[in-house]
Amino acid sequence: MTIGIILAGGHSSRFGSDKALYFDALYKEYWVCLAYQKLAALTDTVFICGNANNQQALKNILPKSAIVLTDCLPFIDCGPLSALYAAASQNQCGTTRQDYLILAVDYPDISQDSLSALLSKRNCYLQDANQKNHYTVAHLSFCKDDLTYFLTKSQRMKNFLAYLLAIPIFADQNVVNQNTLSK
């Protein structure tokens, strides 16, 4: 069983507004909804990891069945790893590893094929056609205890991937992390 995690709790400071709640005129959809549709098609359950400021808005625009989480103690506002910790905390046994397909909301153009390619191997992240690594698009197996241990040492996603011995999986797509409004 693979669980989807949507990273939707960032500050979006370079973007200028909440990326998760950005309505894309091209797709006629909010970015968080695009991510939800993609992960729901590939996983058994999807956790949307937002923040205290956007939690209610996320609940309002997502399907009623969507599970919206926020960072939880003791790892609040530690970047993407806080979201992973919140999702892993849903598993009652902190030592049982779970498969997660992870997607940040700021990849509205990512193809279903690229996400499917990640599911072919555990502990991998996306590397695009330009050989650029995308650490917040990944398929990882971890447990809450892994994150508890790791977050006492580092808060960087790249370092957590190295800790899990994650490898890049090539996607035959140019992938863009949308950090600004210009496309």
UniProtKB/TrEMBL annotation:
Record has Transferase as a keyword: yes
A GO MF term: transferase activity
Domain MobA-like NTP transferase residue range list: 4-162
Gene3D superfamilies assigned: Spore Coat Polysaccharide Biosynthesis Protein SpsA, Chain A
InterPro entries named among the record's database cross-references: MobA-like_NTP_Trfase, Nucleotide-diphossugar_trans
Superkingdom as given in the UniProt entry: Bacteria
Keywords: Transferase
Protein name in UniProt: NTP transferase domain-containing protein
Source organism of this protein record: Candidatus Enterococcus myersii
